[in-house]
Design brief:
Strand order of the largest sheet: 4-5-1-9
CATH architecture of the largest domain: Alpha-Beta Complex
CATH class of the largest domain: Alpha Beta
CATH topology of the largest domain: Ribosomal Protein L22, Chain A
Number of helices: 7
Number of strands: 9
Strand content: 15-25%
Largest sheet: 4 strands, mixed
Shape: globular
Order of helices and strands: EHHHEEEEEHHHHEEE
Distance between the termini: 19 Å
Length: 206
């Protein structure tokens, strides 16, 4: 499965503010609400990347369900998911519901592990903690957390404390989730059917 990734680290708001007038109304409102220029850049390029992936860069109408999950009415049969972490935006497309998440790998917050990870998830972390290879425990934390977010994005039912506490290893979708580390980031994809690998396609600009 192809995962499209865009790094906006070196893109300034001045470089992309001209694109605002071509965005969907909801995206325009979102960009205007942001005070921080980096958030504006990420928001602008999020929509541009979606266009690039699902419609060859041409304008599209993006709709949102009651929980904020974006979707298309046209073209039919196309599902996508988008996420951002620090300086990177990722997007994935399929013919069935799908979810994606990305996080920059830093020192994972142990309070999240304590409050939101299940016993089964803690057992997974203990295995990686024993191995102690290539920062295994910390990366395992990010693998589990991004998997949770990707699953919730696929479902499109919103984020809340209860949903994050769900034991992902007991979810039917768990067997389909695939994760990959890319340039210091952890990416997890939750498709509707089993896939074997993620093919990373990097864009310089959308």
């Amino acid at each position: 499965m192809k995962v499209y990734i865009l790094d906006v680290k070196n893109i300034s708001f001045e470089e992309c503010k001209e694109f605002i007038e071509f965005l969907t109304p909801k995206r325009k409102e979102r960009v205007k609400r942001y005070i921080d220029d980096k958030k504006k850049v990420i928001s602008i390029y999020t929509e541009l990347l979606i266009r690039k992936v699902v419609n060859e860069g041409k304008p599209i109408d993006i709709y949102y369900n009651e929980y904020g999950k974006p979707y298309l009415k046209e073209p039919k049969g196309i599902y996508f998911s988008v996420a951002h972490g620090r300086d990177k935006i990722v997007c994935v497309m399929d013919n069935e519901e799908i979810g994606i998440d990305i996080e920059y790998i830093d020192v994972f917050n142990e309070n999240i592990v304590k409050n939101y990870f299940s016993e089964s998830e803690h057992r997974i972390l203990k295995v990686y903690d024993v191995i102690k290879i290539d920062n295994g425990y910390n990366k395992a934390c990010y693998r589990i957390w991004t998997s949770k977010e990707a699953l919730l994005k696929k479902r499109g039912t919103g984020f809340n404390k209860g949903s994050f506490k769900e034991d992902i290893t007991k979810c039917p979708e768990y067997k389909n989730i695939i994760s990959k580390e890319v340039d210091g980031y952890m990416i997890s994809v939750c498709p509707s059917k089993k896939i074997t690998e993620l093919e990373i396609i990097e864009y310089k600009k959308a």
